[in-house]
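thought: fold this chain, then report.
action: predict
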Amino acid sequence: MQNNDKWGIIFCPRSGQRNPRKLWRKIEKCLQDEGISYDHVQSETSGSVDRLVKMMINNGYQTIVVIGGDSALNDAVNSLMHVEKEVRDQIALGVIPNGIKNDFAHYWEIDESDIEKTVKMLHARRIRKIDLGCIRYTNSEGERCRRYFHNCLTIGLVTSVTNLRRRAQLLGGFKMISYFFSSLRLIAQRLEYKMHLRINTDEISGKVMTVCIGNSTGYGFTPNAVPYNGLLDVSVVHHPEVTQLLEGFYLLYCGKILNHRDVLPFRTQEVKVISNGKAPIGIDGRLLKQPKGQFTVGVDHEVINFIIP
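observation:
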């Protein structure tokens, strides 16, 4: 059955969100004001988005909108990447941001506070084909796997801080204060990992604090990355002194982290990670189980139809 005009909407309440029904009622009113025909379902768990997207694909929806954050959007793009290209090319993916960071939505200047404008933008259905980054690895059971990302893959300290923030957001309230001080403690420890990377013709071997491989802005660590040029931006952060660390935070806030002396920037089609020193790996804000042995991170050029302003 084809649903050419009807939207399939997946509502993913944010972890710890106090009144998701209030948000849905606001979105529902905007949809009705625009005269949009839609079916909607609510995800029960973080792992249910994949199943719901597959259900919508099988039922012929050609516009799928995720109300959620970067992790929910990540599940959606991975579902789309596991169907045949001929099917995927008929589907447009959109987002109404409702996450902790909403980094990819912010790249396109989609504002979570202006739902009416976002719904109008989605209704206009201006489509751009976007790139996705992809990690190809072997898991602990010896199976060959791949996982796509629209924003970034992180290795090391940034992954630890992002995961800590997610856990604090789940608990809310005073736990966010705990997150702040825990983050400071992590940063003060200046965790570093012995890594071996191959980027273009460069070999990087030694102690590294964090690596960000960005298909988009990567939480500010790859500010010049764009998800449509067939390339990934990479920032490798070495072990700064305390004063340089404070300078790094200032430059990160200003969007100029690449000016920091301890940040090595690259632009490439592929990163080979020969060893990551068992540093934690994050994909669009969600932890990935530690790969077995070396792995590669590449880019698939213009593979998803994304609705943009």
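thought: worth noting. The first strand starts at residue 3 and ends at 11.
final: tokens above.
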